[in-house]
């Protein structure tokens, strides 16, 4: 808050009435802090002198308390503005030409303007010419003189100005609205006046002289001098030249506008090319600083329709349905109007823009604004005001705009004092008092004869009543609050890459990135990361076929600040074009470079999924295909966000010591701001039938050969056989476990590669992880064997034969009691290790909700306790098979790999150390183990065509 310096006059100056006319109240809450000296002459003229530190420059301004508001007589509209023109036509002492020459001689910058409530004359010059300028201004205000010819000529010029302004759609829109909004008050006509009155002005010479006599009087005026001047000398000069200006006695009663009833709708057909416009206009209030109404309306406009508002970011910045959005409610002496205006980029946007305006009005009336936003706007208003007063002319212009009300600079401080008192409840109160149906006018402007896509037949009161009904949350909450200082929050959406539209594969992943890495509507990602850095907090995304996890972690002491950032990103994403382009490029690079060129192991596994799910929602890569990614637009992302990231798809996971108030704030915002339901999701059907053995050989420049093979299974975590099959998988190839069977047979016994694993659930990023991630829930799964890269095609052929040989024996013989018991003992304890962090505990709990099962550890332990080796072996025969398998090889020589496979080429092993005879004997069997592949089912694929 700025502190006003108390203004103490240098000495007492007596008027003819012997009164001290300096008014210098003291307050610590003022925004106008410049010391000023205000006095009133005996004739009623207010004189305000402000000495500034800007060298040499002086601004002299004279606001007259007459504007179009004062034009109460029929046929006389526009005279205040017209008379502004006549004030430059000379006096009894100086002709128009002589007056102009003197201004030119002193290099003065002079002009004037007329508003609804006052007319202001302003001139800026060098301080050495202060007396001459005061003499000239006093002369024309006391001794104005013009000829009939001058009068009639200027009348034509004013009509020309009207015609010029009428070429502006905004002018026509304002004129249409005002003449229909008011029936009695003189705000019914604009400052220019009605055209018929302007056309009659050449016949109003006598009235013009009467108008001047009525209004250009000292008690209706102020002289404002701001600049590099001496205060006492300035007052003396004003007294010298304006002291004999005769006081008047004219007053007028301004008609009071009756309360508004009903609504109106008007369309303006614009003949020339223009952007279409849409306006919703409401009755407003006056700029009376003794009541809260105007300040509350101003805050309402900034919060809900300003440049940082949700609707502005949506319509103007993000979707670009509108190129300009205005909330315009000018200060006025009597109750004026509230304009909500949008200029559309295309007439097809009318329905969406109209609905967005209505939705925002309803929000303003049904919710309580965020206090932090309100305080930020108050602060911006206060400091913005101070920053604008950076020169003498700006200070004088500000004073002219406020002293016209009561000719007292304290008016501005009273306005800001009232603004300081406005609460979020006041903003809601103002919205419900002023943004109402009675008096509402909808106006459209376009080249079309009419706008049929929208109408004025809506009831704001009914819409607000519906919106004010308590909203019922459509999402689930997994609340695992505990005493930990670390808070983890997981927004888990049951949607994902399986819902990517055709030709837009990768859309889900890109949408998730835009939320966590694209900033919010109010903060850029750079600002968010900067804010999170000292918190050691994060917010990240993980995308799979049926799940999108947007999760993060923060210390409980920073939870409130972190949640503010995260909730804005989630509920009001920035959706900026530059962030979109950056993230799309990164995603393309992750496919084209990171996966296809730099990670043969993951490439082989992902190609396997693609080959096992042709035409299925699981077919495409989560990150997308390159051509698809190139075709995705920002609008595609917005559509996916609104249609898929809905409450109906959401499970909110919470763990750690998150305060109840913070938790409730988060949940309330989701309830009130996140779309409840979206489009019907694409159904996840069974995997396509796989018949026979198939091979895809991806040829690329690489040294080793990677191998993956597998087939679809009907078992997921909700299946009664899952625990038994999970045990079989662990025995055969527990990820990164040296005790698993394939690891022992291929890696340990033969030293062929780094590791050999088996899976019955999707396990991405296996080369970086020792344990599977949570939140990869899938309705459909595959049985998969992953042989980490082999040294050559020969080794890859042998390792594949070995894995198939062992798989065949497993299916035929099952597990021994010893193998079963050992694996069961391992898993009964290992399952708990998968939940070693509270974020993983939360994630696995939420996965259980997806599958409809008990908690993961309980699922495993209870399932293991009930298992027998006979049951496990029955599950092996039920779900594992050898006939229908797809193999994927990543190699530099595709032709050689294909030839080896089809010709069943012997893949004899050689070792650099002595091996047991039993192993060597087994090698003889394995090196010629038949894979029984058909030429029609073996294909070599160039790397360029993969995920293209």
CATH superfamily placement of the largest domain: Metalloenzyme, LuxS/M16 peptidase-like
- Estimated share of beta-strand residues: 15-25%
Structurally, the number of domains stands at 4
Record field, number of beta strands: 22
Strand order of the largest sheet: 1-2-6-3-5-4
Family: Belongs to the peptidase M16 family.
Organism: Marinicella litoralis
Domain Peptidase M16 N-terminal: 48-192, 481-597
Pfam family, one: Peptidase_M16
What do these coordinates show?
Keywords: Hydrolase, Protease. This is Zinc protease. Belongs to the peptidase M16 family. GO terms for molecular function: metal ion binding; peptidase activity. The protein has about 950 residues and is an alpha+beta fold. It folds into 4 domains: about 35-240, 2-Layer Sandwich (Cytochrome Bc1 Complex, Chain A, domain 1); about 265-385 and about 405-465, 2-Layer Sandwich (Cytochrome Bc1 Complex, Chain A, domain 1), CATH 3.30.830; about 475-675, 2-Layer Sandwich (Cytochrome Bc1 Complex, Chain A, domain 1); about 695-945, Metalloenzyme, LuxS/M16 peptidase-like (Cytochrome Bc1 Complex, Chain A, domain 1, 2-Layer Sandwich), CATH 3.30.830. It has 33 helices and 22 strands. The chain has a 6-stranded mixed β-sheet with strand order 1-2-6-3-5-4, with helices on both faces. Helix 25 packs across helix 31 (about 870-880) and helix 28 packs antiparallel against helix 30. The longest helix is centred in the C-terminal third of the chain and has 21 residues, at about 795-815.
């Amino acid at each position: 808050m700025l502190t006003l310096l108390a203004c103490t006059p240098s000495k007492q100056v007596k008027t003819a009435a012997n009164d001290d006319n300096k008014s210098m109240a003291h307050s610590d809450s003022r925004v106008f802090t410049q010391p000023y000296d205000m006095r009133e002459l005996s004739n009623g003229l207010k004189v305000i002198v402000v000495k500034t530190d800007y060298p040499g420059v002086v601004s002299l301004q004279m606001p007259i308390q007459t504007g179009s508001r004062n034009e109460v007589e029929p046929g006389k509209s526009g005279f205040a503005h017209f008379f502004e023109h006549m004030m430059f036509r000379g006096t009894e002492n100086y002709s128009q030409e002589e007056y102009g020459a003197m201004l030119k001689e002193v290099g003065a910058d002079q002009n004037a303007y007329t508003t609804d409530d006052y007319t202001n004359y302003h001139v800026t010059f060098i301080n050495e010419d202060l007396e001459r300028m005061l003499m000239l201004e006093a002369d024309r205000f006391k001794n104005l003189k013009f000829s009939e010819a001058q009068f009639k000529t200027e009348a034509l010029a004013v009509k020309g100005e009207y015609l010029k302004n009428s070429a502006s759609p905004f002018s026509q829109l304002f004129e249409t609205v005002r003449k229909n909004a008011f029936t009695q008050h003189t705000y019914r006509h604009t400052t220019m006046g009605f055209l018929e009155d302007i056309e009659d002005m050449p016949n109003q010479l006598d009235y013009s002289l009467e108008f001047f006599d009525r209004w250009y009087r000292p008690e209706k005026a102020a002289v404002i001098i701001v600049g590099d001047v001496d205060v006492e000398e300035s007052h003396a000069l004003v007294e010298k030249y304006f002291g004999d200006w005769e006081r008047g006695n004219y007053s007028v009663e301004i008609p009071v506008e009756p309360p508004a009833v009903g609504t109106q709708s008007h369309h303006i057909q614009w003949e020339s090319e223009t952007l279409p416009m849409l306006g919703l206009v409401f009755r407003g209030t006056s700029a009376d600083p003794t009541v809260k109404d105007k300040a509350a309306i101003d805050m309402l406009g900034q919060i809900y329709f300003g440049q940082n508002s949700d609707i502005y970011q949506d319509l103007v910045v993000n979707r670009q349905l509108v190129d300009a959005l205005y909330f315009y409610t000018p200060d006025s002496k009597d109750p004026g109007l509230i304009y909500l205006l949008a200029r559309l980029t295309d007439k097809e946007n009318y329905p969406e823009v109209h609905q967005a305006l209505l939705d925002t009005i309803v929000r303003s009336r049904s919710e309580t604004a965020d206090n932090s936003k309100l305080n930020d706007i108050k602060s911006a208003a206060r400091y913005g005001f101070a920053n604008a007063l950076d020169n003498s002319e700006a200070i004088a212009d500000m004073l002219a705009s406020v002293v016209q009300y009561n000719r007292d600079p304290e008016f501005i401080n009273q306005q800001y004092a009232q603004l300081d008192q406005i609460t979020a409840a006041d903003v809601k109160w103002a919205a419900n008092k002023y943004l109402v149906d009675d008096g509402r006018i909808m106006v459209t402007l376009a080249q079309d004869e009419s706008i049929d896509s929208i109408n004025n037949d809506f009831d704001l009161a009914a819409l607000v009543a519906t919106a004010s009904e308590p909203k019922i949350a459509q999402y689930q909450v997994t609340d695992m609050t505990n005493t930990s200082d670390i808070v983890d929050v997981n927004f888990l959406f049951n949607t994902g890459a399986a819902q990517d539209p055709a030709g837009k594969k990768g859309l889900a992943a890109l949408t998730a990135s835009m939320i966590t890495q694209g900033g919010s509507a109010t903060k850029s990602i750079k600002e968010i990361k900067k804010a999170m850095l000292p918190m050691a907090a994060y917010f990240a995304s993980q995308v799979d076929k049926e799940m999108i996890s947007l999760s993060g972690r923060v210390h409980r002491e920073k939870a409130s600040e972190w949640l503010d950032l995260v909730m804005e990103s989630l509920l009001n994403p920035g959706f900026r074009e530059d962030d979109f382009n950056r993230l799309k490029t990164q995603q393309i690079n992750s496919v084209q470079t990171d996966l296809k060129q730099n990670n043969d192991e993951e490439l082989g596994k992902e190609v396997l999924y693609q080959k096992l799910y042709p035409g299925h929602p699981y077919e495409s890569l989560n990150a997308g295909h390159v051509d698809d990614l190139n075709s995705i637009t920002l609008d595609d992302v917005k559509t996916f966000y609104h249609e898929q990231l809905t409450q109906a798809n959401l499970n909110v996971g919470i763990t750690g010591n998150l305060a109840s108030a913070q938790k409730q704030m988060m949940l309330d915002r989701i309830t009130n701001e996140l779309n409840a339901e979206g489009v019907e999701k694409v159904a996840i059907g069974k995997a396509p039938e796989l018949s026979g053995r198939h091979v895809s050989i991806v040829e690329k420049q690489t040294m080793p050969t990677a191998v993956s093979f597998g087939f679809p299974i009907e078992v997921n975590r909700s299946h009664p056989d899952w625990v038994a099959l999970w045990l079989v998988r662990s025995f055969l190839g527990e990820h990164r476990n040296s005790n698993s069977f394939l690891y022992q047979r291929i890696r340990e016994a033969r030293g062929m590669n780094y590791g050999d694993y088996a899976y019955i659930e999707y396990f991405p990023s296996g080369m970086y992880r020792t344990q599977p991630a949570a939140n990869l829930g899938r309705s459909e799964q595959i049985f998969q064997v992953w042989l980490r890269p082999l040294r050559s095609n020969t080794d890859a052929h042998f390792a594949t034969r070995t894995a198939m040989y062992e798989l065949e024996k497993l299916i035929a013989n099952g597990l021994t009691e010893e193998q079963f018991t050992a694996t069961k003992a391992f898993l009964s304890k290992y399952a708990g290790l998968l939940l070693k962090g509270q974020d993983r505990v939360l994630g696995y709990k939420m996965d259980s909700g997806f599958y409809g099962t008990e908690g993961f550890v309980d699922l495993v332990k209870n399932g293991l306790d009930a298992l027998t080796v006979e049951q496990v072996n029955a599950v092996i025969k039920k779900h594992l098979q050898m006939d229908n398998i797809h193999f994927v090889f990543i190699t530099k020589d595709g032709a050689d790999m294909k030839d080896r496979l089809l010709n069943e080429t012997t893949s004899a092993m050689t070792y650099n150390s002595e091996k047991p005879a039993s192993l060597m004997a087994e090698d003889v069997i394995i090196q010629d183990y038949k894979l029984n592949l058909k030429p029609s089912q073996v294909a070599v694929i160039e790397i360029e065509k993969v995920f293209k």
